[in-house]
Specification:
The chain is mainly alpha-helical. The chain has nine helices and two strands; from the N terminus they run αααααααααββ. The protein has helices spanning 2-14, 21-35, 47-52, 54-61, 67-72, 76-99, 113-125, 130-137, 141-153, and strands spanning 157-160, 167-170.
Length: 176
C-alpha cells in the first residue's frame, strides 16, 4: 500500500500532462490497488476522502516549487495522509457492508448511494417511513418509492403496515 502512496506522489510531482494529472494519478493508484488486491473488489474509492479534505490533499502533495526539490522532500506527511485516507475509506466501506450481513442465496447485492443512505437510517433507527426517506434524500417521492421497492425486492427490507402507516425494517435475515 505504501507503494501506491509513493506512486501517487511521484506521478503528481512529474505532472506529465497539461490537464488531468490528478485524475490519471488516482486512476493509476486505483488500478495498482486492484492489482495488489487492496481495492476490496472494486469498492474502494479514495477520491471521496480526497474531496472531503481537498486542502489537506494538496498541502501534503505540494512539498516544493519544482520537481527536483519535490523528489527530495520528506514523504512522511503525504504517506500518513494517504494511509489515513485508505483506513477511513476502508472503515466506512466496512460499516456499509456490516448493514447487510448476507442474503439467503449468497449472491452479490449491488446498492446505489441512495439505497445505502436508507439502510444507514434503518440501521441506526430500526425503521424508516416515506416522509423520513424524503427528508433524508431530498429527491422526488417516486424515486424514494423505487429505492424502497428495490430494497424490498432484494429481500433486504421488509414492509410493515399499509398506507400512511407503512414502515420499512431490515429483513430478519439481515438483523444482527
Amino acid at each position: 500500500m505504501l507503494l501506491a502512496g509513493i506512486i501517487h506522489y511521484e506521478f503528481v510531482s512529474i505532472h506529465p500532462f497539461s490537464d488531468g494529472n490528478g485524475r490519471v494519478t488516482r486512476l493509476l493508484v486505483k488500478l495498482l490497488l486492484d492489482l495488489l488486491d487492496y481495492d476490496f473488489r472494486g469498492c474502494l474509492v479514495l477520491d471521496t476522502y480526497y474531496w472531503q479534505n481537498t486542502s489537506q490533499y494538496y498541502q501534503n502533495l505540494n512539498q516544493a516549487d519544482n520537481y527536483l526539490d519535490q523528489r527530495k522532500a520528506d514523504l512522511t506527511d503525504w504517506l500518513t495522509y494517504f494511509i489515513e485516507g485508505f483506513y477511513l475509506v476502508s472503515k466506512d466501506l466496512e460499516r456499509k457492508m456490516s448493514i447487510i450481513t448476507a442474503n439467503q442465496n449468497d449472491e452479490t447485492i449491488t446498492l446505489n448511494d441512495q439505497e445505502m443512505q436508507i439502510l444507514d437510517f434503518v440501521n441506526q433507527f430500526g425503521q424508516i417511513n416515506l416522509p423520513e426517506a424524503l427528508d433524508i434524500l431530498q429527491v422526488p417521492e417516486r424515486t424514494i418509492q423505487r429505492r424502497l421497492k428495490n430494497l424490498v425486492d432484494k429481500n433486504i427490507l421488509e414492509v410493515e403496515g399499509k398506507g400512511k402507516n407503512t414502515v420499512y425494517r431490515l429483513n430478519k435475515i439481515h438483523q444482527r
